[in-house]
Amino acid sequence: ASLVSGASGYSATSTSSFKKGHSLREKLAEMETFRDILCRQVDTLQKYFDACADAVSKDELQRDKVVEDDEDDFPTTRSDGEFLHNTNGSKEKWFPHVTPKGINGIDFKGEAITFKATTAGILATLSHCIELMVKREESWQKRLDKEGPNSLINEEEFFDAVEAALDRQDKIEEQSQSEKVRLHWPTSLPPGDVFSGVGNHRFVQKVEEMMQNHMTYSLQDVGGDANWQLVVEEGEMKVYRREVEENGIVLDPLKATHAVKGVTGHEVCHYFWNVDVRNDWETTIENFRVVETLADNAIIVYQTHKRVWPASQRDVLYLSAIRKIPALNENDTETWIVCNFSVEHDSVPTTNRCVRAKINIAMICQTLVSPPEGNKKISRDNILCKITYVANVNPGGWAPASVLRAVAKREYPKFLKRFTSYVQEKTARKSILF
């Protein structure tokens, strides 16, 4: 029997059932049906070819038999000299009518139509499967990238994901540090006088204003202020936070104080400001570049930070300036300060790839010296650097307040310990730079 009758239902309904709303499971079931149809056609064709081969084989055997019989049909001489002829239908023996058994019912035209319809159905179903996969991938990508109050994951899941990503970064950093030995190449440090001047560029007034504000307000003791919360205390390091939210965005000012032995304020601020060694201690940056050099002590930097899923990736464009503030009287000590604050630059517009964060950060350092006994030379055992680090960051975009505060509580102390240890390591075998 022809396969058309049995398969025409599948072929006729395959295109009509091709609806965009069908799931992948249904489409896979359709392809299983198409596969069955093709398998049946292959089986039918195989039977036909087997029958043909069998018929040819039988035909050859028949021909051999006819030849043998015909040899017997040649005239034989009787004793009286007459010939005898065998006339029992030798033509039928030579030309038998061979028809393979069971193949007369195959409708090749119908089978061809079915084959074409089936393959077209397979291609259409595959195309739809690909479409569904692409849509599903786009949907997951949107879910992956989505950041906002309507995020599909709750705050607990958000925090767990962020914490897991940060843990992975920490492990990668630890591994990279264990695999490499830091090179202590000589770093040329300009004399302090270079950093005493205000400079001459278009942001001079803004830099002066920022530094004066930090010198006035950032050095104030906040230990007894009810608005500031002590969130971390480890040895000499204390981290305070004042909770501030604006339009649902966490803008908590953060302030940390620390005391580090064996280094000067000049050295700490130099390594914090110098972009040549930035990647040695900063682990959150993906890449950065100096956009413009405004003066010997002022540059504009653009940097992108490693993405921490599910938050969007952040970038920041800021002016970084380093200054030495002379002591007002002999009882005071000179102060070194690095101030980083967001600016705009025509060559670095905002992009859709990153959320532009806004920052106002200051690293303020003062060096205390305990004179050695007798006339001994001052060593690193005699110096102590008092550090005040303040950070006002607007992360842009959105993330749960509880998550941002938990991450800040974890990351800021870790950064300060990592950075100050790096400065101690880099300066241990160098002359003291006051």
UniProtKB/TrEMBL annotation:
Tagged with keyword Transport: yes
Gene3D superfamilies in the cross-refs: 3.30.530.20
Main location: cytoplasm
SMART domains: START
GO molecular function terms attached to this record: lipid binding
Pfam family, one: START
Entry keyword set: Coiled coil, Cytoplasm, Lipid transport, Transport
GO biological process entries: ER to Golgi ceramide transport
InterPro entries named among the record's database cross-references: STARD11_START (IPR041952), START-like_dom_sf (IPR023393), START_lipid-bd_dom (IPR002913), START_lipid_transfer (IPR051213)
Gene Ontology CC terms, in alphabetical order: cytoplasm
Cross-referenced CDD domains: START_STARD11-like
Subcellular localization(s) per the UniProt record: Cytoplasm
Domain START: 225-428
Name listed for the protein in its UniProt record: Ceramide transporter 1
Organism, as annotated: Laticauda laticaudata (Blue-ringed sea krait)
